[in-house]
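input
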Amino acid sequence: MTDTTTLQSAAPRARRREAAKAIAGEWCVGILGTDANGEQIVASGELRLLARRAASCLLEPAVGDSVACLRIAPREVWIMAVLQREEGAANVLRCPGNLRIAVDGGALELEAARVGLKADELDIAAQKTRVATDTADVVGREMHLIGTSIKVVGSVLSSVMERVQHFSRHYLRTTDGIDRVAATHLECEAKQVLRLEGEHTLVNGRELIKARGAQIHFG
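output
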């Protein structure tokens, strides 16, 4: 009685295991093209199959590429990889939505003859940044530089500005050589003490020299 019951209960389980089969798929290779409506079509032998790019295929397929596809539906395939493309065609990595590249315990390096970044907004966060270049050009409509300590070292500094406004609590400047200011109108104003000192001090007014004070001492 026990053996009969065991066989009867095991039979449905065996049938369920036989019925639980994986979804069948078929690999094929073809050439990517487009139809009259602009839809991507893969020509594989005599078949013309509607193509969709798989999420893992980051290299965007182009017309004329040889592609490897996985056929699931009778008239539809997924492009899994680009096998070959014509020389000179641009390689574009594209994915929908957000993309994040994470490297654990290693370094990420980019090497190319030219690297270009184009974005509406660029954020860079790093504890230490080092930039080494022979020539650098920075062009911007509005720029802000904020830092606790800023140091600029160079041999020649040349700046052209429409207007310069500077504020500091302490300003010290040392020049070995000539320090010359040329202006149409020059004003120097001090709230407490204004001191001019030199081994030879010359004051030259072409038309007028005027000194005014509660007390004036010469000598």
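quick obs: Residues 22-94 form a domain with the OB fold (Dihydrolipoamide Acetyltransferase, E2P) fold (CATH 2.40.50.140).
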